[in-house]
Amino acid sequence: MVYHQAVWDEPLLAELHSKGKIGITLPSYKQIDDSRAESLVPKKLLRKDVKLPSLSQPEVVRHFTKLSQMNFGVDLGPYFLGSCTMKHNPKVSERIASNQNFSELHPYQDEDSIQGILQIFYELSEMLAEITGTSRVSLAPAAGAHGEFVGALIIRKRLQELGQLKERNEMLIPDSAHGTNPATASMAGFRVVRIPSDKEGLVDVEALKKVVSKKTAGIMLTVPNTHGFFEKNIREICSTVKEAGGFTYYDGANLNAILGKARPGDMSFDIVHLNLHKTFATPHGGGGPGAGPVGVKEHLADYLPIPLIKKGKKYSFDYNRPKSIGRIKNFYGNSGLLLRAYVYIRMFGKEGLPKIAEQSVLAANYLLAKIKGEDYIPSHKTKAPVKHEFVVSVKNLTASTGVRAGDVAKALLDEGLHAPTTYFPLTVEEDLMIEPTDSEPLSSLDRYAEVLKKIAETARKDASQIFASPKNTAVGRLDEVKANHPLTLTLNWNKLVK
Ligand SMILES: *Cc1c(COP(=O)(O)O)cnc(C)c1O
Is 294 near ligand 1, meaning CB less than 6 Å away? Predict the structure, then answer.
């Protein structure tokens, strides 16, 4: 993709400002009935003048259109950002979520006037319980990490009730876990005990057995793990922890790998969280809003956050849950995401959902088979297929040419392909974590593989070409120090409007 040259140095709106230009004419302050506003807002807070840039309408339209072209998104090209599931999301979910009848509901409306959305929340939580094999699901958590935090707090509360919190303060977390797992466990007050991976990139069960003890509060298992593998010893891992009195937590952010094929609840997990903004529509990325529902088995249901949605004669918020860990978010969940997920699940249905798993796993294995070799070395020597994503190392390329994983990522940008996740997981050197997703056509998998091969060839012939990329993007290589330095970062445009 080659961007229009004019996009490169797009000035700020404030820099385009020149006095006297008019984009649209608003009714004058005196024309609108201002008496109400004046009586409602204290005088000292009423603004007389707002310093906004003056611009014509075409200038504004062009400005924002250009900015939109500087961005890369799933609607523009392949976006194989490992661990983030940047797939195509059906536009119908977007339309329904932005329907005014949903988007303009107010959280303070009384329950009788929001029965529709409450029914959707209720049914969604039931569907997610079925999908995960758990008994009850809270839709409140606002992100995957937030769901993990809720899960860890539930374990904490249960241990407290059992009078075991003092002794059981260790959370076992494999080194192939997602980075949020140790963070949330320690935020919830646990000491994190790291479990190493074995040669196949799976939890080292012998090492696990050595550290399991009376101090074990539980284990948080990312499945598939960040090497892209399904933990085939999952039953042994769970029973080891449970026999020692600990709880089992399934990080199901990437449920797309097993969706409709297997259920964490059936694998004897007590708690599961999902990222709706990965598996069930809603693009993930840019730190946008999320939804990380948490499902638990019956014995932990009382501890879920308040409120839950109750179904009686009508749907209502249930606050009468004395054992609950409490409120973890204002109001109830990010409704736009919950709606998108609801539509997505209803649309695919029981027959369609497993195809998402099949397609994402097939795409990842196909792409890995096409690129693996000297330059792109699979993270582990194993016959096991990967799940929805995989990790390769470019360490050979780095040793012979100096080209690092980050350089390969930059070179991909020049071809209109989004970079994969780089330098994660931390267990593999110079790694790329690639997730082609379930929605990518075969032609783009082939092209991605070809481009990766070309980059390796170019690196061997003339590495300086790779170091010079990206050349075709709106912004070239950033001076990362400068970009973060407070003295060089100007965020105040106000002075520009005169
Ligand atoms: C993305 C992800 C998370 C964290 O989700 P956020 O919504 O970004 O907080 C946790 N675990 C795994 C395995 C993930 O892929």
Answer: no
